[in-house]
Amino acid sequence: MNCYCGNLKDYVNCCEKIHKDLANAKTAEQLMRSRYSAFVLANGDFLMKSHHSKTRPTSEKKAIVAWAKSVNWIKLEIIDTTMGLENDTNGTVTFNAYFYQHGKVDVIHEKSAFKKENNLWKYLGLSK
């Protein structure tokens, strides 16, 4: 089975490596993909750990996990990435995350900003 993030590798050889050690995310896109998989798995600990400390919504963790469990995740579609390579310190990933909720398919369309913190890629928030 392909990884939840849409890569052709299986979960164990893809996002699970990043879930176990954030240093395995070498690009902003890899972190984005692993965060999508964490939503599919309702892995709130990883979602908090991979969120930049300046914007981390720690008080919302339970609500985020509850919402992630309440929907059926369909697929992640990466539309565009800017920079966000291993030697960069900032990057963006534009994506669509499709899910099924309340009898209909919905989509989250977002351009996310990523920034390295302690040499690890972290999700910063919506890109401006």
Give a short overview.
With 128 residues, this protein is of the alpha+beta class. Helices cover 27% and strands 35% of the residues.
Provide the descriptors you would attach to this structure in a database record.
alpha+beta, Nuclear Transport Factor 2, Chain: A, 128 residues, 4-stranded antiparallel β-sheet
Describe the structure.
The protein has helices at residues 15-20, 28-40, 44-49, 61-70, and strands spanning 72-83, 90-101, 104-117, 120-126. The chain is α+β, with helices and mostly antiparallel strands and 128 residues long. It has one domain (11-126): Nuclear Transport Factor 2, Chain: A (Roll). The model has no long low-confidence stretch (mean pLDDT 93). A four-stranded antiparallel sheet has the order 1-2-3-4. Helix content is 27%, strand content 35%. InterPro entries: NTF2-like_dom_sf, YchJ-like_M.
Architecture blueprint of SSEs:
Layout: H1 15-20, H2 28-40, H3 44-49, H4 61-70, E1 72-83, E2 90-101, E3 104-117, E4 120-126
Antiparallel strand pairs: 1-2, 2-3, 3-4
InterPro entries: NTF2-like_dom_sf (IPR032710), YchJ-like_M (IPR048469)
Organism: Algibacter mikhailovii
Domain YchJ-like middle NTF2-like: 27-124
- What is the mean pLDDT? 93
The CATH class label is Alpha Beta
Q: Number of folding domains? A: 1
Q: What is the third-level CATH name, the topology?
A: Nuclear Transport Factor 2, Chain: A
**Strand order, sheet with most strands:** 1-2-3-4
Which architecture would the CATH scheme give at its second level?
Roll
Radius of gyration: 14 Å
Strand content: 35-45%
Gap between N and C termini, in Å?
Answer: 36 Å
Percent helix range: 25-40%
Helix/strand class: alpha+beta
- The ordered string of helix (H) and strand (E) elements is HHHHEEEE
Say how many strands there are: 4
Overall geometry: globular
Protein name: UPF0225 protein
Organism: Algibacter mikhailovii
Pfam family, one: YchJ_M-like
Domain YchJ-like middle NTF2-like: 27-124
